[in-house]
Amino acid sequence: MAAAQYIGVDIGGTSTRAARFSGDNHIPEMKTKIPTQASKGVEAVLQRIEMAIREVAGDQLQQIAGVGMALPGPLDPHTGVLINAPNLPGWENLPLQRMTAERIGRPVFIGNDANLAALGEWKFGAGRGHDDVLYLTVSTGIGGGVIAGGRMLVGARGMAAEVGHILAIPDGPLCGCGQRGHLEAVASGTAIARLARAKLKAGDGSDSKIWELASGDLESVTAAVVGAAAVAGDEFAQRLIVEAGTFIGRTLASLLHAFNPSIVIFGGGVSMLGDVILDPVRSAVRQNAMSDAYWRSCPIVLAALGDDAGLVGAGALAMEETSAHRQPVGPS
Ligand SMILES: [Zn+2]
Asked: Strands, E, within the chain: which ranges?
């Protein structure tokens, strides 16, 4: 008998990607990427999601065991309702699981994109073989996922592991969520860029390589520009990255106390700077952990699946959910 087939869909503010997976392989057999066009409204986006699913399913839609969907923003995976999505205007309290299942006639499951990236890295990436995994993604925002005792932690209403919204500085800078001083507001790519622009505007770093990389235009200073300058040895840029890494490392020490993982995986564009940011993360962990037992045998590593983590995780969600309710299919 042919291995079961699953579809993963990763819905972002800009583009939506879908892929078909077979059995326990994370290499997609079919893959597509389309613009989400969120501004056209919910119905138009749902139509496009359906199109993407049908495209990767080909003539095998009836053989698809399940479809997993990774979405930004808080959602309830138990009820299949998206609570809201910051990058998708008008998407509020949407029973997305039911709406999509009705369109395609296959079982559908939804999950938070950072949670599903954690699931993907655990099942098929850097976290393979571990039962306790902490995953953090540092890009425009900061998100994460927790695997505890071989299960993904979702929480009572499915909103657990929002590691970017842990308090870092009381009454600190405004966070995207509306509160102040959260980790995301002081250490995300957005925060690094904002801080760099403010310092440069105030006259700091007048000889920084950032000016050259941004062609002298303050508005062109992004986290990627700061990161490139830091990697090239620019001290002003390095200080900004070290500061962000230190905030992340302090929070991570608390997360190690709470979850005691055997591996910590960093994904997202800012993390891909590698040791420039991960070394300050590691030293802040060492300075703040209550015992070296928390970090001595807990490597802090880079994600292995890159941009595909959410997509692979969405496929893994469909696989987990459809196999959880029946006997495992063994070799026959
Ligand atoms: Zn926040």
From this structure: 5-11, 15-22, 30-35, 64-71, 75-76, 81-84, 92-94, 108-112, 133-138, 142-148, 151-152, 263-267, 300-302
Tokens of 279: 């070394």
Compute, in angstroms, the gap from residue 73 CA to the centroid of ligand 1: 12
Ligand 1 centre distance from Cα of residue 178 (Å):
6
**Contact at 8 Å (CB) between 93 and 83?**
yes
pLDDT in tens, 170-221: 999 999 889 999 999 999 999 999 999 999 999 999 999 999 999 999 999 9
Expressed in angstroms and rounded, the spacing between residue 76 Cα and the centre of ligand 1 is 19
Q: Separation of 181 CA from ligand 1 center, angstroms? A: 7
Beta strand pairing call for 300-302 and 263-267: parallel
CA distance 118 to 266: 10
Distance, C-alpha 303 to centroid of its chain: 11
For residue 107, how far is its CA from the centre of ligand 1 (angstroms)? 33
Q: For the whole model, what pTM was predicted?
A: 0.92
